[in-house]
C-alpha cells in the first residue's frame, strides 16, 4: 500500500530546539533559556484595541493584503523608521514574519532553484526551502568576521539556478548587525547575479548599539523584499502578525499568494497591530532597556570565567562557545538539562556552523536568566 504521507513533508528537518523544549516541559522546575519569545505581556492599549475591534464588528474577512488603515500606518512606519519609501500597494500583512518570508520565497522561486541561507541561521529558513523543493546553499557567518556575511564566501555558492539570498540583521542566533556598507555590498552582489534579497528584519527594533539599517534603504529597493513582524517589537508573538514590503514588480504576486495560504490575517489582530503602530512607542524602548541590561549582566558573567561568546548587538540571544567542553551541542544541551535543569538551544539546530555553540535567550525574567547562567557556568567549569 502506498504511504499516505508526502515524502517531502516527512523528510522536513525537525527543529532541534523543539526536542529540548519538549523535554524541558517535562521538568517543571527547569529554567527556560531555549525559547526566543519576549517574557513581556503585550501592552494593554494593544489588547484593548483588539477587544474593541471584536465588539465593533471587525469579525469578517479583510482584503488579502490587509486593512487599508493598517497599510497606511505601515507605510508611514517604514518611511519613518526604515527609510523605505513604499506605497501602500507594496505592502502585504502576513501571519507573522514567518509567513512574510515564506511568501517571499514562493514569489521568486521555482522548485529546484537555489537560495543562499545564513549558517548559523533561523532553522525555519531551511524548513521552508525544503518544503519548496529549493536547494538551500548555506553561507557561513564566521566568528573571525564578527558573524556578518562576507562577499567572498557568497560568490562561490552562486549557481545558474540561484534566485535569492536571505539576510537576517540583527541575527538570530548570533545577534550581529550587518552594517550599511556590507549591506550595500550584498545589494551589489545580488544585482550582479540577478538575485532577490529577502531581508528578514524581525529584530529591527531590538538593538543595543547603533548601526542597524534596513537593507532596502542602502541597496536597490527594486531587488529587496523586506520582512517585518510585530512579534518581537511589541511582545505579540501569539497574535501572529507581520508584513512585507515588496518592490512594485513583485507586490501583486505577494498579495495574490495570500488567498490560498491564509486569505487574510484575522481582522481584530490587524486592528491591534494598528494600535501598536499608532500608539506610544516607548513600550519598545522599555523592553530594549531590559534586554540590554540582561545582555550586559550575562556577558559580564561569561567574561569573568573566560567563556567565549559572540557580542550581541541586537536581537535577544547570547551565542556561547562550548568547545573545549564538548563539540556536540545537542549532547551538551541534553546533559545541562538533566544535570542542572537549564534548557538552552543547541547551536547545531541553527546549521552545521552552530556545532560547538549554544544559544541562550535573554527574553527571560532577569532572576531566572542569571540563575540559569550561573548554573551553566558551574556546569562548564566543574563538569
Ligand atoms: N525571523 C527570525 C530570525 C526569527 O527569529 C523569528 C521568530 O523567532 C521570525 C523571523 C518570525 O517570527 P514571527 O513569525 O513570530 O513574526
Please describe the topology of this protein:
Elements lengths: L6 H5 L4 H10 L5 E2 L11 H12 L12 H15 L8 E4 L1 H13 L5 E6 L3 H9 L3 E6 L10 H4 L7 E7 L11 H13 L3 E5 L14 H4 L5 E6 L12 E4 L5 H11 L5 H12 L3 H23 L12 E5 L7 H12 L1 E2 L1 E2 L10 E5 L4 H17 L1
Parallel strand pairs: 1-10, 3-4, 3-5, 5-6, 6-7
Antiparallel strand pairs: 2-8, 7-8, 9-12, 11-12
Pyridoxal-5'-phosphate (PLP) binds next to helix 5.
Written overview of the protein:
The protein has 14 helices and 12 strands. It has helices spanning 7-11, 16-25, 44-55, 68-82, 96-108, 123-131, 151-154, 180-192, 215-218, 251-261, 267-278, 282-304, 329-340, 366-382; strands spanning 31-32, 91-94, 114-119, 135-140, 162-168, 196-200, 224-229, 242-245, 317-321, 342-343, 345-346, 357-361. Strand 3 (114-119), helix 6 and strand 4 form a beta-alpha-beta unit. Helix 5 packs across helix 6, helix 5 (96-108) crosses helix 10 and helix 12 (282-304) packs parallel to helix 14 (366-382). The longest helix has 23 residues, at 282-304. The radius of gyration is 21 Å and the shape is globular. The model has no long low-confidence stretch (mean pLDDT 96). Bound molecules: pyridoxal-5'-phosphate.
Amino acid at each position: 500500500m502506498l504511504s499516505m504521507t508526502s515524502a517531502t513533508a516527512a523528510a522536513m528537518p525537525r527543529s532541534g530546539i523543539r526536542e529540548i523544549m519538549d523535554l524541558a516541559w517535562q521538568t517543571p522546575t527547569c529554567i527556560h533559556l531555549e525559547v526566543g519569545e519576549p517574557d513581556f505581556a503585550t501592552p494593554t492599549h494593544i489588547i484593548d484595541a483588539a477587544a474593541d475591534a471584536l465588539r465593533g464588528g471587525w469579525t469578517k474577512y479583510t482584503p488579502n493584503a490587509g486593512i487599508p488603515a493598517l497599510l497606511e500606518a505601515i507605510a508611514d512606519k517604514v518611511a519613518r523608521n526604515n527609510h523605505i519609501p513604499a506605497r501602500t500597494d507594496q505592502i502585504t500583512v502576513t501571519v507573522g514574519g514567518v509567513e512574510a518570508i515564506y511568501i517571499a520565497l514562493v514569489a521568486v522561486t521555482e522548485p529546484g532553484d537555489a537560495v543562499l541561507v545564513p549558517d548559523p541561521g533561523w532553522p525555519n529558513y531551511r524548513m521552508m526551502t525544503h518544503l519548496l523543493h529549493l536547494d538551500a546553499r548555506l553561507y557561513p557567518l564566521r566568528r573571525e568576521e564578527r558573524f556578518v556575511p562576507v562577499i567572498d564566501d557568497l560568490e562561490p555558492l552562486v549557481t545558474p539556478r540561484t534566485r535569492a539570498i536571505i539576510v537576517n540583521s540583527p541575527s538570530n542566533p548570533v545577534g550581529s548587525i550587518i552594517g550599511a556598507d556590507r549591506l550595500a555590498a550584498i545589494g551589489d552582489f545580488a544585482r550582479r547575479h540577478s538575485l532577490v534579497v529577502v531581508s528578514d528584519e524581525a529584530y529591527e527594533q531590538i538593538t543595543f548599539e547603533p548601526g542597524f539599517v534596513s537593507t532596502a534603504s542602502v541597496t536597490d529597493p527594486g531587488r529587496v523584499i523586506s520582512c517585518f513582524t510585530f512579534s518581537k517589537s511589541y511582545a505579540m508573538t501569539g497574535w501572529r502578525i507581520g508584513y512585507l514590503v515588496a518592490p512594485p514588480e513583485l507586490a501583486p504576486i505577494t498579495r495574490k499568494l495570500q488567498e490560498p495560504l491564509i486569505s487574510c490575517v484575522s481582522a481584530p489582530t490587524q486592528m491591534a497591530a494598528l494600535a501598536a503602530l499608532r500608539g506610544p512607542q516607548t513600550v519598545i524602548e522599555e523592553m530594549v532597556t531590559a534586554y540590554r541590561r540582561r545582555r550586559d549582566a550575562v556577558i559580564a558573567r561569561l567574561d569573568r570565567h573566560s567563556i567565549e561568546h559572540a557580542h550581541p548587538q541586537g536581537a535577544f540571544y547570547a551565542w556561547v562557545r562550548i568547545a573545549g567542553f564538548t563539540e556536540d551541542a545537542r549532547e551538551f544541551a541534553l546533559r545541562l538539562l538533566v544535570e542542572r535543569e537549564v534548557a538552552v538551544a543547541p547551536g547545531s539546530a541553527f546549521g552545521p556552523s552552530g556545532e560547538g555553540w549554544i544559544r541562550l535567550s535573554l527574553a527571560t525574567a532577569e532572576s531566572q536568566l542569571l540563575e540559569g547562567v550561573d548554573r551553566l557556568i558551574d556546569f562548564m567549569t566543574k563538569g
